[in-house]
Amino acid sequence: MKQSNTIKLSSVLRFIPAAVWMAVIYSLSSQTGDEVSTLLPFFQRFFPAMTSFDWGHYVSYFILAAALDFGLGRKADKLGWKIGIVLICGLYGVTDEYHQSFVGGRMTDWHDIRNDMIGSAVWTAFIAIPPLRRKWRKLG
């Protein structure tokens, strides 16, 4: 019986990275338009071609999909769970855009949700490549 509880706890703990990353996304969405505008020049020093934060949605949800994939473990190898990861990311993107509608200087943009889902879909396609999947499984 003890081993069963340990396995359940271990399964829950695997989702900590996803929960932390969701908190990071929420925190970034809580910044006002003026605060976000002051961050752009900082990132442009490292990425001179960056003209907006649209790419941030791809990257943020690529990472969220990776964290959810890690949480699911071997279950994420199945197509249904891969689709589920993209849908969960899309749903979180919807809540993120709704949250932004209450933040000064920010607005809801449905293109952001599209970008969120593209980022998560790219992760699921990328990690489905067998050699990459094997290396990913060795990490977790």
Write out key terms for the chains shown.
about 140 residues; 7 helices; about 0% strand; mainly alpha; globular; about 80% helix
Rg calc: 17 Å
Beta-strand residue fraction:
under 5%
- Low-pLDDT stretches are none
| Biggest sheet features | none
SSE sequence, one letter per element: HHHHHHH
State the secondary-structure class.
mainly alpha
What separation lies between the terminal Cα atoms? 24 Å
How many discrete structural domains? 1
Portion of residues in helices? over 70%
Written description of the protein model:
With 140 residues, the chain is mostly helical. The chain has one domain. It is 78% helix and 0% strand. It contains seven helices and no strands. Helix 5 packs antiparallel against helix 6. The two termini are 24 Å apart.
